[in-house]
Amino acid sequence: MAVISELIRSESDGTISFGDYTKAEKSKLDDFKHAGDVYKVKTFKEITKLERNGMFVYESVPGTSVERLSISEDGVAFQVEGAEDANITLELEPETEYGISVNGNDTGKMKTNLGGKLSLSVELEEGNSIPVVVKKA
Predict the structure, then answer these.
(1) Where in the sequence is the domain holding 13, given as residue range(s)?
(2) What pLDDT digit, counting tens, does each position of 107-118 carry?
(3) Which DSSP letter does residue 74 get?
(4) 3 within a domain of the structure (yes/no)
């Protein structure tokens, strides 16, 4: 997987890809339209953040590159790459239990807080992307 040089893009399968963890300086792109929604991305080596219609969707510390982000009523799925291990926060349904799979391994279930936030850690190595699937339990 490569970094997303255009910061965010639509994929032919209806998903989106975003983020560039190699950037030394903060970069952002507002008003990216995809499937009737408006996205905003901020990214660089320290953080990657995605908003949809003004609402929080994804954040990683340090920054990451995400490919094929798919959001559905049942959860979220994507491929992620970064230079080092990252903490990822997702906005999902409040007080809902989700099953989590990282790199094909079931890592258990987690319940979102009152605000719908779910945080997970992923072990990353530059040049290798891993799949993450978060699905309602």
Answers:
(1) 8-136
(2) 999 999 999 999
(3) T
(4) no
